[in-house]
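Structure ticket #2291
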Amino acid sequence: MSAADWYAHKSLGDGLFWIQERFYQSENRANIWLLRGTHQDVVIDTGLGLRSLPEYIDANGLLGKDPQRKNPLLAIATHAHFDHSGGLHQFQQVGVHSAEVDALANGDNFETVTWLSDREIAVAPSPGWRARHYKVKAVQPTHILQEGDVINLGDRQLTVLHMPGHSRGSICLHDHDNKLLFSGDVVYDGAMIDWLPYSQVSDYISSCERLIGLVDSEQVDQVLPGHYNTFGAKRLHRLSSAYISRAGTCPAKFSTLVWRTLSGLALRASNPRCAC
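Resolution: structure written out below.
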């Protein structure tokens, strides 16, 4: 299967594109965001990497047809989990938070929580492909990101907000001038996961409090999340507040403990050579 068949995209205007993997039919299917700038272009999250994302972007002219346009394309992972980082190896410039650099550089499929089944792939990307052979390929990040770093696209800037909880290196990217928040898996319109390896509930609560602060200070109008559909500031406030209220309860703590134990065992079994 070609890259042209594997992916699909939609233009949201202003040089922003929403890309998805058509045949990865799972709740784990991550949104891929492409943002054009006058100085630099950015891909935010890269999906599984089963087909060439750069090839798809180029073939569909998503960066424009101007032959003089030679902007560097930077791929940023909002965190290292497989559904967001699997395609990073296809890019020359790769950014991730410092806390997860080693996971990517070592191809640590435990920390990237690599978990894929044949039933999630509606059409195999190549003859004989099987999910059990899938691994996140090691990649050495060229841009090691920290809280407060600014990624200058020329006509807009993205500020790195370190928001741990879902994973230790989870980040959001905030376009302050346009009040856009690329939230990764810190928050999306679904159940927020805090029971994976390197998840931390106390950090997640702090991150949600910070998200509420962004809404209260009117710094966010629209959220472009790691999964599902976009939503607005009111929904962001509601989702963040709901997590804080739920996370402190005894049932939630017990559930988190059980799921963390089970997920750890499953990931170790499926990634026997991981450094875990």
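Closing remark: The longest strand covers residues 7-13.
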